[in-house]
Amino acid sequence: MVSTCNCNQQSLVSKDALTTMPKGVIFDMDGTLIEQNVDLVKLSRDICEVADNDVIGKHREWDRDDLANAMANVSIDGQRKIKQIIGEECQRALECMTIQEGGPELVAFLAQNGVRRAILTRNYESNARHMQRMYLDANNDATFDLVIGRDTHYNGIDPLEGEISKSERILYICELWGCSPSEVIMLGDSIKDDILEGNRAGASTVLLEPEGYLLNNVYGTNSGNSMERKPNVRIESLLELRLLLEEQIARRSLDCWESTIRALEMEIDSSISSQSSEPITTVES
Ligand SMILES: [Mg+2]
Question: Cα separation of 95 and 42, whole Å?
Fold first, then answer.
């Protein structure tokens, strides 16, 4: 069921993109465009184990809720081990990649309505391009305008050395698309990676929360503040987002008809009133 969040506190984000068709939708990949098959629990455990046994990491206190911090708190050798762990898990996930139900239909719907589409993932760009080809096969249609992975270069920075936040990437995508962040939707299944980062960038945020799958809600619940973690909309499937956007199109079309009818009525009224005020002329025989 689609539910729009009722925020009693002042929201940090504009909801413009949820009351009109957005200019673009930025998709997370794992758990959003494809079924979640990255084992985040194992990944977290293995990375923490490296940090706990690292010559630098074992003396450091760092936020375990944000695994990106691990890299900054371990030795060069620890960083190499963490990269290897992430690489192996991403490779394993690649081999059993499954498209999320409703994904190709949503992407095709957006393309048909002129809404731009980007993939923004902490997975590797090559894996995202593999998924893009799967979408192309499923859709035989337009897929994504942009593909940005954790290793996609950004302003000359190699992200493997210093990871670029998703909020920075969102602002960069909006710059490329020539629109404001408030005109795009950030859609993902992670509170920390997608909702918090989307809100920080000023985008509207949609949390995909398939029934029975709450792992990513737990992952990241200590990051940011409560408003930054709050999505504008929660959905249980990608089909629901398509229905929500179809409603916007239907509403826009109705508004358009209503304003056309109002304009016609005003024109008729004005014509009648000008006829009645014209002087009556008589024809003499
Ligand atoms: Mg995800």
Answer: 17
Q: What percent of the chain has pLDDT over 70?
A: 84
Spatial separation of the C-alpha atoms in residues 12 and 138, rounded to whole Å: 37
- For residues 171 and 57, membership in a common domain is answered with no
Q: Could you tell me the distance, in angstroms and rounded to a whole number, from the CA of residue 216 to the centre of ligand 1?
A: 8
Query: What's the 38 CA to ligand 1 centre distance in angstroms?
Result: 9
Q: How many domains does the chain have?
A: 2
* pLDDT tens digits along 96-113: 899 999 999 999 999 999
Residues 81 and 201 both lie in one domain? no
Same domain? 176 vs 251: yes
| Cα gap 224→196, rounded to integer Å | 7
Cα(214) to centroid of ligand 1, in Å? 12
Q: Do residues 51 and 174 both lie within one domain?
A: no
Q: How far is the CA of 97 from the centre of ligand 1 (A)?
A: 13
Ligand 1 centroid distance, CA of 194 (Å):
7
Query: How far away, in angstroms, is 52 Cα from ligand 1 center?
Result: 26
What residue has token string 């184990």?
49
Identify whether 279 is part of a domain.
no
